[in-house]
Structure formats: structure tokens, C-alpha cells
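Title: Comparing notes on inverse folding

I've been comparing how different people in this forum approach sequence design from structure. To keep things fair, I'm posting one structure and asking everyone to reply with a full sequence. Here's the target:
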């Protein structure tokens, strides 16, 4: 009997070791599948109720993660009018809202970000914008990963390390982009009259684009230093009061609008303008993209819609 009990204990020990090994193997396989998952969660309805409290008709709260899953951002990034809006929203989430996203919403966030990077790699546009987004996200993740164990991120630490490696890979891909010169040999920008060149340059809303354009050719360098051009840019983005607080005089005693612009952007946020934005219906509290049908009971639903900036969208889910 004594020898039988020892043998039985030995078999139990082997059994437990086998079970532990199987559990560990399954967990590693699950983590690997989660890291490689590219599934986007689609919903038939491309709108969502935004309500901050429970009622008899509606139960629970609408969260940022739920809205992010439902509002069809994958299609929005393919629309040039919505692209900058979505990128700005991704940047704001990366700065301060990552921990408020659910696990599914975080996976969708990374999938959409990958599609954004692939789009930029294909059409070679908005490179600097996406570089800044990736750098913001990577910096935030470095801070959050250091606090592992305090429940600040949903998911296994290995999964987030894998995502950070993906971000570094995307950054390297963007750095290696070689802009191809178009084969078109017709009229170029520098062939246009100077008044038209200056008129087009006035449409640029980022001073860094003006500086880059001025580096293309000597004639463009002269136009990019136009005082009136930088004055209009300052007046577009900032109020008179903000401008008066940051006055800079040149050696000739004139206002140096170019230096003032770059000083102002370090002190104040620039004006944001988008071709298309998310709309909030004041009548039925439904959030959707412009042109999306939703079950509104108002007589004139178009008059009830209010455009939301990316920051206003984030503020809807701060309770």
C-alpha cells in the first residue's frame, strides 16, 4: 500500500506538470494570435447614441472605445476630406486616452493606424503628419509600459511590446520613402506667373510647408519670405491679442511675421479646419459622419446637426 501511494503521488505530479505545460503553451499561442490579428470589427450601423446616463429606454454608458469601434474610421481614412480629421483624432487618443479604450478598441486603433501608414506609403502624401502621430504614440506607450502592473493598459505586456516594435518599423519605412518625380513634363508650379504662385502659397496653412517649398528653387525662396504671406498666416491661426503678446521686430524695425509665427505655434494651438467632420444631432443625440442616415425623428434633421472638432469628440466621453 505504501509503495502504491508513492506511485500514485508520482503520477499526480506528472499529471499536474502536463496540465501546467499545456496551459502555458495555449497562453503563448493565444498571445501570438492576438499580436498577429488584423481583424477589424465592423458594425452594420455606422452611428451611435451618445448619452451620459442610464434611462428606462437606454441602459449603460456610451464610451470612447464603443464609439471608436462603431464609427467606421477604416472607410473615413480613404476619404481625403476626412483623412486629417481621423489622424488628429488618433493623435489626441495617443496623447491621453489610450487607457480608456477597451481591448477591442485598442486593437481597432492599431489596425486603423496601420492602414493609415500603408496609405501614406502608397501615395507619398502627409508623411510628416504621420511621423508626428507615430512619435506621439510611441512616446505615450513608453511611459505607460513602464507603469506595467498598475492596470494602465489592457492586455499582455508582450502584446504591447510587439506593437511598439511595429511602430518603430513603420517609422523606418516612412524615413526610407524616396519621393518619385512625376513623369509629367507640362506646365510646372514655377512656370506659373508669380502672382499665381503667391496665391497658391497663401492656401498653405502650415508654415513648415512654406519653408519646405522655399527650398525647392531660388525663386520660390524669395516668395516664401514674403512678409504679407506670413502676416496672413499668423492672422489666420491666432487672435490679435495673442499676436500682440508675441511681437518680434526685425533689424529694420519692422514686424518679423515669420519668426512671430513659429513663436506663436509654440505658445498657442493653431486653428484647425477639416473638409468633413463627425456630426452630433442635437435632437436625438446620435453621432455619425455627415451624410450617414440615422433614425432621427426631427422634421429637418439637417438643421439639428452640429460639427464636432476632434477635441470636442473626445470631450463627449469625459464624465
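Reply #1:
Here's my take.
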Amino acid at each position: 500500500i505504501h509503495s502504491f501511494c508513492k506511485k500514485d503521488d508520482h503520477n499526480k505530479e506528472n499529471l499536474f506538470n502536463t496540465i501546467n505545460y499545456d496551459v502555458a503553451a495555449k497562453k503563448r499561442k493565444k498571445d501570438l494570435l492576438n499580436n498577429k490579428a488584423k481583424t477589424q470589427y465592423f458594425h452594420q450601423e455606422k452611428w451611435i447614441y451618445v448619452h451620459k446616463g442610464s434611462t428606462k429606454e437606454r441602459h449603460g454608458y456610451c464610451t470612447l472605445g464603443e464609439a471608436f469601434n462603431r464609427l467606421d474610421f477604416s472607410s473615413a481614412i480613404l476619404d481625403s476630406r476626412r483623412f486629417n480629421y481621423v489622424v488628429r483624432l488618433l493623435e489626441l487618443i495617443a496623447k491621453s486616452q489610450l487607457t480608456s479604450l477597451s481591448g477591442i478598441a485598442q486593437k481597432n486603433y492599431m489596425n486603423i493606424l496601420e492602414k493609415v501608414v500603408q496609405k501614406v506609403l502608397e501615395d507619398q502624401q502627409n508623411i510628416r503628419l504621420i511621423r508626428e502621430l507615430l512619435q506621439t504614440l510611441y512616446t505615450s506607450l513608453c511611459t505607460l509600459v513602464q507603469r506595467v502592473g498598475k492596470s494602465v493598459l489592457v492586455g499582455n505586456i508582450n502584446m504591447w511590446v510587439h506593437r511598439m516594435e511595429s511602430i518603430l518599423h513603420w517609422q523606418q519605412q516612412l524615413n526610407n520613402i524616396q519621393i518619385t518625380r512625376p513623369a509629367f513634363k507640362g506646365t510646372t508650379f514655377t512656370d506659373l506667373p508669380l502672382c499665381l504662385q503667391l496665391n497658391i502659397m497663401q492656401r498653405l496653412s502650415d508654415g513648415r510647408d512654406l519653408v519646405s517649398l522655399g527650398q525647392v528653387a531660388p525663386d520660390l525662396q524669395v516668395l516664401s519670405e514674403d512678409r504679407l504671406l506670413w502676416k496672413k498666416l499668423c492672422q489666420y491661426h491666432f487672435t490679435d491679442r495673442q499676436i500682440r503678446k508675441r511681437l518680434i521686430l526685425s533689424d529694420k524695425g519692422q514686424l518679423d511675421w515669420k519668426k512671430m509665427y513659429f513663436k506663436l505655434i509654440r505658445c498657442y494651438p493653431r486653428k484647425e479646419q477639416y473638409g468633413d467632420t463627425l456630426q452630433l444631432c442635437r435632437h436625438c443625440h446620435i453621432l455619425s459622419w455627415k451624410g450617414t442616415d440615422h433614425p432621427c425623428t426631427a422634421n429637418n434633421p439637417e438643421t439639428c446637426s452640429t460639427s464636432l472638432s476632434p477635441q470636442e469628440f473626445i470631450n463627449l466621453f469625459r464624465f
